[in-house]
Amino acid sequence: MVNVKVEFLGGLDIIFEKQRTHKVNVKRDGEQEVTVGMLIDYIVLNMIKNPKDKDVFIENDTIRPGILTLINDTDWELEGEKDYVLEDGDIVSFTSTLHGG
């Protein structure tokens, strides 16, 4: 099991019961490493309560454009995106850059 902190910022907390920070435990299957892709699947399946809100977070099986994703304060594109292997204590932040107005 890998224990990580997940943050939903820039208004994304609205679809996560208005809670910005979550401690998440993602289980491993046997010897398999836990990746950010597995974390995203976990978030979609277990943390988004309203099915209509999934489209706010996910598009084409990845994080929706307009959501900045950071792993330990580094852009996930530099870390391998969904293939990044999570370790205990990692912080994964999702920040919406899209603002109404």
TrEMBL record:
InterPro entries: Beta-grasp_dom_sf (IPR012675), Mopterin_synth/thiamin_S_b (IPR016155), Urm1 (IPR015221)
Cross-link (Glycyl lysine isopeptide (Gly-Lys) (interchain with K-? in acceptor proteins)): 101
Metabolic or biological pathway: tRNA modification; 5-methoxycarbonylmethyl-2-thiouridine-tRNA biosynthesis
Subcellular location: Cytoplasm
Gene Ontology CC terms: cytosol
Signal peptide segment: none
Keywords: Cytoplasm, Isopeptide bond, tRNA processing, Ubl conjugation pathway
Main location group: cytoplasm
GO biological processes: cell budding; cellular response to oxidative stress; invasive growth in response to glucose limitation; protein urmylation; tRNA wobble position uridine thiolation
Modified residues (1-thioglycine): 101
Functional summary from the UniProt entry: Acts as a sulfur carrier required for 2-thiolation of mcm(5)S(2)U at tRNA wobble positions of cytosolic tRNA(Lys), tRNA(Glu) and tRNA(Gln). Serves as sulfur donor in tRNA 2-thiolation reaction by being thiocarboxylated (-COSH) at its C-terminus by the MOCS3 homolog UBA4. The sulfur is then transferred to tRNA to form 2-thiolation of mcm(5)S(2)U. Prior mcm(5) tRNA modification by the elongator complex is required for 2-thiolation. Also acts as a ubiquitin-like protein (UBL) that is covalently conjugated via an isopeptide bond to lysine residues of target proteins such as AHP1.
Family named by the database record: Belongs to the URM1 family.
Protein's recorded name: Ubiquitin-related modifier 1
Annotated organism of origin: Lachancea dasiensis
